[in-house]
Specification:
Blueprint lengths: L1 H26 L4 E4 L9 E7 L9 E5 L12 E2 L10 E9 L7 E7 L2 E2 L1 E6 L2 E2 L4 E2 L5 E4 L9 E9 L5 H8 L4 E2 L2 E2 L3 E7 L2 E9 L4 E9 L6 E8 L4 E9 L7 E6 L14 E8 L5 E9 L4 E4 L3 E4 L2 E2 L2 E6 L12 H13 L4 E4 L6 H11 L1 E9 L5 H15 L5 E8 L10 H5 L6 E2 L4 E2 L2 E2 L19 E2 L17 H9 L6 E4 L7 E3 L5 E3 L18 H9 L3 E2 L12 E6 L10 E7 L13 E8 L8 E5 L4 H6 L2 E7 L5 E8 L3 H9 L9 E4 L3 E6 L2 E6 L5 E6 L2 E3 L2 E6 L4 E11 L2 E10 L1 E8 L4 E8 L8 E3 L2 E6 L5 E10 L12 E8 L16 E3 L4 E6 L4 E5 L5 E4 L22 E6 L20 E3 L4 E8 L6
Parallel strand pairs: 26-27, 26-34, 27-28, 28-29, 29-30, 32-33
Antiparallel strand pairs: 1-15, 2-3, 2-5, 4-13, 5-12, 6-11, 6-15, 7-14, 8-9, 8-10, 8-12, 16-17, 17-20, 18-19, 18-21, 21-22, 23-24, 24-25, 31-32, 35-36, 37-38, 38-41, 39-40, 39-42, 42-43, 44-45, 45-46, 46-47, 47-48, 49-55, 50-51, 51-52, 52-53, 53-64, 54-63, 55-62, 56-57, 56-59, 58-61, 59-60, ...
Length: about 950
Amino acid sequence: MIQKRSIKNATKWAMYLLHFVTISTVCGQSTAISYLSGTDKDHTVDWDFMVSSGANSGTWSKIPVPSNWETKGFGTYHYGWKEDFEKNEIGYYKHTFVSDAHWKNKTVKLVFEGAMTDTEVKVNGTSAGPMHQGSFYRFKYDITKLLKSSGENLLEVTVRKISSDTSVNRAERMSDFWVFGGIFRPVYLEIVPESHIEWTAIDAKADGSFLINVYTEGDQKNQTVEAQIKTMDGEKVGAPFRMPLEKDAEKTSLRTQVESPDLWSPEFPNRYQVELKLLDAKQNVVHTKTEKFGFRTVELKRGVGFFVNGVKVMFKGVNRHSAWPTSGRTMSKEISIMDVNLMKDMNMNAVRMSHYPPDGHFLEVCDSLGLFVIDELTGWQKKYDTAVGRKLLKEMVTKDVNHPSIVIWANGNEGGNNHELVEDYAKYDPQNRIVIHPWNIFNGTDTQHYKGYDCCDGSLYNGKEVFFPTEFLHGLFDGGHGAGLNDHWNKMMANPLSAGGFLWVFADEGVVRLDQGGRIDTDGNHAPDGILGPYREKEGSFYTIKEIWSPVYIDHEKLPTHFDGDLEIENRYLYTNLNTVQFEWKLSTFPSPYAQDTIGTVLDEGSISGPDLQPKQRGTIKIPFDQHKKVKADLLTLKATDVHGRELYTWTWPLKSVKTINEQWINEPRPQAKARVTETERDVTLTAGDLAISFDKSSGLIHQVKSGDQQIPFSNGPQPAIGKADFVSMEHTTKGDSVFVEIQYKDALKRVKYKLAPSGLLTLDYAYYHDTGGSGNAFDYLGINFDFPEELVTGVKYMGRGPYRVWKNRMKGNNYGVWHKKYNNTVTGESWEYPEFKGYYRNFNWVVIENTIKPFAIYSESDDLFLRLYTPPGPQAAENNHNSPPFPAGDISFLNGISAIGTKFDAATNHGPEGQPNKIGPEWIEGKLVFDFVGKYP
């Protein structure tokens, strides 16, 4: 009994403490927040709702807030430029909330973080204020006088999907992105003292100078603002400083100086906080407000470059929509953290908001994890009119001004730029950050979009302005992004006026269509243009970008024959010494093609710190492996990890030739049987044990393969990938226990020789060339082809670089190893089972073709051979062939050259040397393959 009473009393005491804390929050001096909606897509509150037209219209029901109503089964889905402005959907919301006695003598503001698009608000039947127009902006109403002193209050909100302001529709709705309706960001009450700090604007420079403009509301008589800078841990930095409020002054400015502050940058996102106190005449605290910020200086030096903290910056950036498949524009902090981490995992240092200001939590994560940000006023090729634009600009800047991550304001996009608004940014931003017009040459910058590698006389690469394309290498389907980036980046790195650029776009903007059985809709070819899928599935370009933009740059495609551990290395950081980077290395062997797993044995490993190299310096890193173990090893792996524990990149290099590696598997003991040859009118058949391989006497091509009782339909090769080979003759001989076949052709195939050994291994020795005019001949691909029915294939196990396919202009990003892949028929951007199965694979060693009949293996003796597995289907929504490169005939190919892939707007040839066709001279190209149709593969 005593124990129960103690528990009951403890519960009462805990409830009292909670109530006391709540009262202190409201009755004390800080701002209190009371949510009327949920806080994000995963934490919502149901409100009463009805939509005027479309799905589930005309009847009151419930809807979670925040949300876009389409994603909850209401209204009609629209992709921007297909908007029908005559069919405006109107959403009606109702919600009740209870007044709190502690609100007495307080100011209560009703805050909307974002609603699409025209929003009218009533509280207890009375209008809260003017209708708000514009989707992506925080707006608020003082509803103090509309609230009941006690009891329930009725909140009614009418949201029109289409604005009555034609310029809002032009800027926001007639756009190249999904347009939605509804209250899509949180709604809450902000309870403050009658006299309070409304907002602040900070300018904290790299030299430690600190300015804060404090904007107050209410009676300012005899009041003072006091500020105290603190670390994020709460430790005071310097002494407090204060300034009295001037009567009726719009703002009060406070200044101080901090000695040697830790600076903010993407590499070291150091932040501070400033605690503000509004004091009355008796020095009592009226209101407190705390803001986070970072010390850093941003400067555009015209004709020189873009500088942050005195360091010339190269933006390694991407554009990002605030989008999630099941919730539209309604996001969460968890998604923000995931997205920023994915960007930093790609070694990006910058992100552009496309094409509207994001949720506050996204900017907070950019601040804390470290990304440069371009924050953008909406205006997709059409601009806001000046009156409404000025209101929305102010709402954007006053909300976002203190984020150290924001280094540039973008005043609309691609011609949607109202020049009359440019000077307004400085009214609210004491840092006077540069304002750009993306797609234009403006204000000392050149940000033109989607220009080719050799473009632009007098501008961009050949201009006088600092240039950083705010969109380049449009990544539609599997093109762009990583494809072409190596060429563009090398050219940017070599140009003193380059400040980098921003890829289009971070993720496919796919929406789950509840009206179409739950399929993900990217509106044809309008929105499947991400590096990642809608749920952040990684495409191959993810890893290409990661390698190219690694701040630790190692440009060793191959290791020298007598590699002693020395690797040339370059520091491509902006602010970081490479001695802060930790390197882990290991020597290992490869597993057998017969093994169940894909992991070899580690022979030696260790870790070392990076060399003392400042940014832009080159040097050497020494890997201290055991030379005796190195001789036995097949692979060197080197992983770089930054000071924050994030992997920068992992490089892999084979330590032996393909021929040497494969010989250990080819020469394994096998059952022996004397090879024989027989002829019929149609075929020449080679046999060894229960293996029989037949060649068509009229063409010399493999006709059929039989292993025991199983017919393996591997056939119709080798055929040249380019050109034709006219059959001349076929001869066979027996030498010892092996059989040899030599086939003569005219034109493309110059040598085709087979050897069937007693082990059942069939060796093909071939050579080809294309005599079509001598040197300078250009071809999309080069090599030989075979057929094997795609419908029989279940997967592959292979050794080479993987697990992603490559293109001629997207070679980087894959690691050398043994990979296992199940068959899929993925069309990048239209389905999202990654890595894709079909395509080209680099540095092919061996492959086991898994199928429903009998797995078989093919080995190479060439170090730089490509394996081709079938032809990826072209995207159904494609409007051109830029993203569907040419492929050879047949099903399985062994190639010395492969095709490149283009972007949404351009062929691959427009984006650098790597995008050009393969050029060869008159010399022969030789190869050797070994086929194993007998072995027992897993």
